Amino acid sequence: MPLVDVRSGMFGGSSGGDTSGYGGIVRRIEMPSSAQRPFGGWFDEIADELDLALHDDSISFDIAVEAVVLQADEITFHVRPDHLLAFVARLRDEPALRFEICTGVSGVHYPHMTGRELHAVWHFLSITHNRRIRVEVSASEAHPHVPSIVSVYPADDWHEREAFDMFGIVFDAHPGLTRILMPDDWPGHPQRKDYPLGGIPVEYKGATIPPPDQRRSYA
Amino acid sequence: MPDVTYEESYAEIIGEGAGAEGDPYAGAYDTTDGRVYTVTGADWDTVLAPPEGEKERIVVNMGPQHPSTHGVLRLILELDGETVTEARCSIGYLHTGIEKNLEYRTWTQAVTYVTRMDYLAPIANEAGYVHAVEKLLGITGDIPDRAQLVRIITLELNRIQSHLVCLATGGFEMGALTAMTNGFRDRELVLDLLEMITGLRMNHAFIRPGGVAQDIPEGGVEKIREVMRILPKQLDGVPQLLVDNGVWKDRTSGIGYLDLSGCMALGITGPVLRAAGLPYDVRKAQPYFGYERFDFDVPTADTCDVYGRFLVRLEEINQSIRIVEQALDMLEPGPVMVADKKIAWPAQLSIGGDGMGNSLEHIRHIMGESMEALIHHFKLVTEGFAVPAGQVYSTIEAPRGELGVHIVSDGGTRPYRVHFRDPSFNNLQATAAMCEGGQVADVIGAVASIDPVMGGVDR
Known about the structure:
The structure holds two protein chains of two kinds. Chain A is α+β, with helices and mostly antiparallel strands. In chain A, 18% of the residues lie in helices and 29% in strands. In chain A, the strands form four sheets. Chain A has a five-stranded mixed β-sheet with strand order 3-4-7-6-5. In chain A, strands 1-2 form a two-stranded antiparallel ribbon. A two-stranded parallel sheet of chain A has the order 8-9. Chain B has two domains: 1-49, no CATH class; 99-343 and 385-458, Cytochrome-c3 Hydrogenase, chain B. Chain B has 20 helices and twelve strands. In chain B, a hairpin with a 2-residue loop joins strand 8 and strand 9 (355-357).
């Protein structure tokens, strides 16, 4: 189960002030764990079709996919980066899958997942079958490279540029991976967790309110 | 001010670096923050001289401050006479880091931020976000019926006003000034309704996790009905003015062409896709908030051009009016917030003589009657509620297409990551496909038919 965070105390405050007596509590926050077959509903159909199709590429579903996560009636395939392109090409081309539209990629930064801190999450839509799936690929901060799928889904062009801009995920073989929202010479990747939010303390009627990222949080 | 001329002070500042490379204005000087270089434009001739045997290239920047680029969109056009040979978009001028900001606010406070993304579809942003949060909380089925109907009413009113802006500004940009004045006149009626329901004309922060912030005020239903009666008559002017207008048709037909395969490849959704003939609408395909109970059509066109998109939007306004009228008929008295007190915002606002404010009844309850109620109020308002760890993706049909919201929770009281797949952001990618090979003047029409809102594109 992927670890997101380790929290101690009752209110998550780290600057003291927790007088509840529960300061010794340590909680490990984990994401939902991998599901086993059967996944239920049309999820199994998709897995079967993918397995069948990927055999034509001399790989199998189990080789390409690290884990499958089910949550809130949605399915996420955690795909190994080496097999991502073959995987999404099959998603688009197989008549039984037919995911015509990639509705973009979003980056997520999990600083606690050592060795796989950066995740790229692609969302796919099949209008033919009226289905949606999610494909997730991870990379480390030290080597933030994942394959680009623009050659298969041209619509993903700007979305991958945004994920690069905000998270520093390098999409290999992207036709023009430049910053898209921030200026070209901007240092750093703003939506990483270690990038500060910025802001200044505000004074109001004698009291000082710190910027949002320095206020007490109750996580 | 010391009595020195500009030249003297400049020479004093730039010192020995002046006159470098034969350019008297380019130079460098040292400051406490490091060496500062003065860059001039004098090297353009050497940089941009056309290669041997090629003729001159003309590159025109349209925007980011051009009245017909819908806000701060910058189009970089390469021209051969009046023909656009290459079109590129540059965006990011309105980036405000809303997604990052959300990570430092509670799940409820985030609504106030997302409503400011696509500022012509604030209700749609809120609805998409709230839909995702509720999905991850697992309370989608617990939302009271009245809340869902009020959401649908505001969503459809929002769609009407957004499409009216599109028709108004789109018409204006192509010279149909009356379309602009009529469009904004009719939009004002709808904005008045939204103001009556939510308290604000835009940036409503009205749809909240668990329900809506406020019930429709007394007499509100009648007012909405009245406007829904007036609006079709007012809108009749648009078809009379434009639909069969030869000048308008010549100006928009065959312009900004993008067929179905182009839409599929570029992930285009919304009116642009429907104008290519595919009746795909999230409200029909994967209904949310109970859209499956409504009887409405998904209008399409088969022209794949600006004119087709104009017709689709026009008909969508009529369909939205139908939905609002049906929703008003379905309205039954009841709560507009989920029953779970651990999630529901503690109090509805009340309307006092000086506008909206706290509910005095609620304040009397927490301050004078119940210690537990006070604790609940305090915990929910300062700390918020926790959302189970995991991720979820929800989509709704925003006026400009499919709005996707990807949220990740770490089990805390704040979003871990929120990503908005804004339809304008995606659809703007079609600019090159629509504009290249056409005329400069048609770029305006093509971009107007995508109807990008830069607040949503840049977020």
